[in-house]
Structure to design on (138 residues):
């Protein structure tokens, strides 16, 4: 995933977050509201497809992501933009099991072990793995 951080002169939008359905963007969050300082800053996540095209040069995705963000929320030109690459931001596959615990006692857990690659999935996966390990160890 690529994350575009776009700073504006002033807040001209009225939403805290938006799930986008492309092109190029999947999610936009109001970073000033998240931090609590109300800075006019938006963070936009790319789609995996757009990220894949720009993994070697994330900055090159900046203009397309900025244009998509501006179109989505009818925004003026941002004062500043930064693109950050999150190479392992999302699991690429699905797993039905909530964790792995093999015969040697090696356990694996995380947000790839559940329906959505989110904090709640990672927490539940780790919690259930811990419980299974404790039970096995008696
Ligand atoms: C930009 C962004 C925004 C997000 N926003 C949200 C949100 O608003 N809400 C939400 O629910 N989720 C959000 N997520 C998803 C959330 O961050 C993840 O689902 C969650 O962090 C997964 O937790 P985890 O413990 O499975 O993996 P991680 O948090 O990725 O932890 C894995 C750890 O293992 C370490 N590691 C990796 N390989 C090795 C190695 N070989 N040796 C040693 N250490 C290693 C890494 O350094 C890392 O510390 C967001 C993700 C990103 C990238």
């Amino acid at each position: 995933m690529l994350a575009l951080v776009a700073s504006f002169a002033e807040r001209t939008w009225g939403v805290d977050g938006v799930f986008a359905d492309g092109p190029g963007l999947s999610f936009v969050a109001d970073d000033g509201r998240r931090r609590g300082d109300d800075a006019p800053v938006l963070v936009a996540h790319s789609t995996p497809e757009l990220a894949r095209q720009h993994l070697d040069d994330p900055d090159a995705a900046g203009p397309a992501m900025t244009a998509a963000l501006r179109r989505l929320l009818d925004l003026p030109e941002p004062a500043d933009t930064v693109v950050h690459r999150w190479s392992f931001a999302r699991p690429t596959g699905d797993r039905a099991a909530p964790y792995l615990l093999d015969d040697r006692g090696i356990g694996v857990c995380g947000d790839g072990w559940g329906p959505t690659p989110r904090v709640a999935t990672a927490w539940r996966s780790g919690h259930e793995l811990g419980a299974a390990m404790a039970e096995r160890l008696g």
Q: What stands out?
A: The mean pLDDT is 94. The pocket of flavin-adenine dinucleotide is lined by residues 1, 3, 86, 89, 110-111, 117-120, 122 (CB under 6 Å).
